[in-house]
Amino acid sequence: MNIDFKDLALFIEIAEASNLTHGARRAFMSPAAASARIKALESQLNTHLLYRDSRGVDLTEAGRRLLPHARLLMRQLGYLETEFAQYGADASGHIRIFANTTAVTEFLPEVLSRYLALYPGVSIDLQERHSPDIVRGVLDGSTDLGITAGPVAAKDLEIIHFSTDRLVLALPEGHSLESRETVSFAESLNFPHVGPQEGSTLHDFLREQASHIGHNLKWRIQVSSFESICRMVETGVGLGIIPESSALRYQQTMKLSLKQLDEPWAVRERSMLVRDLNALPGCVKALINTIRPNP
Hints:
Layout: H1 5-17, H2 20-26, H3 31-45, E1 50-53, E2 56-59, H4 61-85, E3 92-99, H5 101-118, E4 121-128, H6 131-140, E5 145-149, E6 158-172, E7 182-183, H7 185-188, E8 193-196, H8 201-212, E9 219-223, H9 226-234, E10 239-243, H10 244-251, E11 256-261, E12 267-274, H11 282-291
Parallel strand pairs: 3-4, 3-5, 7-11, 8-9, 8-10
Antiparallel strand pairs: 1-2, 5-12, 6-10, 6-11, 6-12
């Protein structure tokens, strides 16, 4: 079998566009040339990869199985090119990161600023994703590095713990719970809550925890950021549960009272996810070493 990497790259573009013409354009080919190359790839693999119709293309079962392998092979080829573009090449390359909201908004800006000052030849594609998408992206090769919080249920991944955060309850100053040392989640549900938008990791997590204790968590209002949650809490709209790292920052400029949640799940381990640490290029390993504390 002698598969051309260009054919794999073209297949990925077509699969992600769900359209042969659009995929060909992304790969800088004519539709006719792209169609011929895909047919040649199918001949190499002795199977059909795409269902074609007037609306576009869909992957066959074989195509779905090929896609993650193709992504991993192309990413590994990118690693190889990076490593030898400049000998000892921690200093150059491109890194794709999928990270949760807290990572993107709270600590990665400072970390990446420090890292990019040391490695000016590196470019970074940082995308905010939900935890299941982060895990899936690392597994299928869509991203080099995943950053998430809380338990990670995924085989075939290396999990690198690097810090601990916790969820806290934010109250407006003068609230009836302000005198308490800690507050249980169930107690907090006696009051209206301000929450993140539906589909976010924290939204789904808190709804799940409420369900475990027989509550149907209903948000008084849902907003798009931790800062917005804190502003709503400050004005008395409701209570909010957010990461402590975010809450402490916003408490500096807002009238908030923060209370520890008396729940074991409030403590959340932050982790980096990779498929194979030893196979990563030097620039990614250098970033991982920048994020995690020195031993």
